[in-house]
Design goal:
By secondary structure, this protein is mainly beta. The chain has six helices and 21 strands. It folds into two domains: 71 residues, no CATH class; 236 residues, Fumarylacetoacetase-like, C-terminal domain (Fumarylacetoacetate hydrolase, domain 2, Alpha-Beta Complex), CATH 3.90.850.10. The protein starts with a strand and ends with a strand.
């Protein structure tokens, strides 16, 4: 079962539940007319979970078929997206790292202004970057509030999981001085218009019993660029929730990005310290960064496929 945001007509976006090829609008369940967003679903989940999960059988009159993916919007627009960089061992090996790479989570933030949904366009802006890169990541959707959350209880705070593409302007991100010291500028390099495709929907946490046992992959123009298991994270989902909850009270609807594996275009960019490393012969190393016309497909087992096209 998935929760998504769906454009129902005349600019109206409503939360829906998807199961197989069928779906229904949550606010068409009698008594739930006031729930008009996915964020409202998350906040009220303890009270409405049973009615929503039983609606396919209890309210067959509201069930529709033939979901139109082009009408899916980003599942939600979180005010805060907490991001962990350099969180896969193989990604650390393929690039020039900063002094903290692999030794502690690299903490940066994106905002709702960066978010787009599946089938939406990633904008290539040459005034911003000529080195636009894509990173498929597992995204955690927080379901309830907490601060200083212990690792052993962290997954209890998860509403579900979705797919993120952490679009990055590498020539804004990676900086090196004349002495060879490298640092990351994670503001302009990470947060800009269309830099966070998110979706296509949220898989409920009970459908993903082990978030550290999922296959993640990226195809660009049908070429396999990334493929690994989330078991290869340096800090797992529970540890990241604990880590970010030290800084912030995590709230329903917040999203945590968990990092990307090897196979980025950065890995073959020698000028930025790229050092291509792969033990998967099916992965095709990038020959360039993304350009208008490229189709990016980010996939995670148990969730689905997030698809976006780069445009001028």
């Amino acid at each position: 079962m998935f929760i998504a945001s769906y454009e129902t007509g005349h600019g109206v976006v409503s939360p829906i539940v998807i199961e197989d090829a069928s779906y229904f609008l949550i606010n068409e369940i009698p008594g739930l007319e006031g729930i008009v967003s996915v964020k409202a679903v998350i906040k009220s989940w303890p009270e409405v979970e049973g009615r929503i999960k039983s609606a396919f059988n209890a309210n067959p009159e509201i069930v529709r078929n033939e979901l139109d993916r082009t009408r899916l919007q980003a599942p939600l627009y979180p005010s805060t997206i907490l991001c962990s960089g350099s969180n896969y061992r193989a990604h650390n090996a393929e690039k020039k790292g900063s002094p903290i790479s692999g030794s502690e989570p690299e903490f940066f933030i994106k905002t709702a202004d960066s978010v787009i949904g599946t089938e939406s366009s990633i904008i290539y802006d040459p005034l911003l970057s000529s080195k636009l890169d894509c990173e498929t990541e597992l995204a955690i959707v927080i379901g309830k509030s907490g601060r200083h959350i212990p690792v052993e209880k962290a997954l209890d705070y998860v509403f579900g999981y979705t797919i993120a593409n952490d679009v990055t302007a590498r020539d804004r991100q990676v900086r090196t001085n004349n002495d060879g010291f490298t640092w990351y500028e994670l503001g302009r390099g990470k947060a800009f218009d269309t830099s966070l495709p998110l979706g296509p929907w949220i898989a409920l946490s009970d459908a993903i019993p082990d978030p550290q046992n999922l296959i993640l992959s990226t195809h660009i123009n049908s070429e396999l660029r990334q493929r690994t298991s989330t078991s290869q994270m340096i800090w797992n989902c529970a540890e990241l929730i604990h880590f970010f909850s030290i800084n912030f009270t995590l709230k329903p609807g917040m999203v945590i990005l968990t990092g990307t594996p090897a196979g980025t275009a950065w890995s073959t960019d020698v000028s930025l310290g790229g050092n291509w490393v792969s033990d998967d012969p099916e992965i095709i190393p990038a020959t360039r960064y993304c350009l208008p016309g490229d189709v990016i497909e980010s996939s995670i087992e148990g969730i689905g496929v997030l698809r976006n096209t780069v445009v001028s």
